[in-house]
Amino acid sequence: MISKQKWVWPLLAVVAIAQSAALFDMVYARDRLLKSGQEITLAVKPLDPRDIFRGDYVTLGYDISTLTKSTTETDPDFTGFSVGAPAYVTLALGSDGKWTETHVGNRYPSKVAPGEAVIKGRVKSAWQDGNTAVTRIIVRYGIENYFVPEGTGRVLEDKVRSHEIKAIVAVAADGTAALKGLIVDGERHEDPPLL
């Protein structure tokens, strides 16, 4: 029995160090993405105003969240887009200052032109036509929730409804995205949650 206790504390110490290292790595990776990722701005629309467990937040929807075969150049018939599959969306900055999708595929594109950005998401749902070909997909990028100080979510939601808000998104070279902040009535607010 004494020999079992001898190994318990060192084992607990190793587990604690491993968990701390994993948490530090997550925080460091997110901080690096926010500081060095390519910055894009996306027009947003609200979906849900409050999370009772974490305070006020606004759930943001994006034009690039719903993709149809007819509106984007893409792999033939949205092949490989089943629920949970990755989706790599290539965005280009238009002359109107708006980022729009130009291509979507289930792999990172082999060529990305200067001034374009590739954002990675996961297919949340896929619709098929009568011929079983996928014609529309809903993609989630992990940038859909923005937490705000308690009591301000409804005001922010009202502003989003009137199209006065854009999301500031940092995109890494591999397509990973993080929400940096919002532009509200032309004023930049960068106070994203840590994780």
Strand content range: 35-45%
Total beta-strand segments: 12
Give me the secondary-structure category. Answer: alpha+beta
Percent helix: 10-25%
Structural description of this entry:
By secondary structure, the protein is α+β, with helices and mostly antiparallel strands. The chain has helices at 2-36, 153-161; strands spanning 38-51, 55-62, 66-68, 73-74, 86-93, 99-105, 116-128, 134-140, 145-147, 165-171, 177-184, 187-189. The protein is globular, with a radius of gyration of 20 Å.
How would you briefly describe this protein structure?
By secondary structure, the chain is of the alpha+beta class.
Descriptive key words:
195 residues; alpha+beta; 6-stranded mixed sheet; 23% helix; globular
Secondary-structure topology with pairs:
Blueprint: H1 2-36, E1 38-51, E2 55-62, E3 66-68, E4 73-74, E5 86-93, E6 99-105, E7 116-128, E8 134-140, E9 145-147, H2 153-161, E10 165-171, E11 177-184, E12 187-189
Parallel strand pairs: 4-6
Antiparallel strand pairs: 1-2, 1-10, 2-9, 3-8, 5-6, 5-7, 7-8, 10-11, 11-12
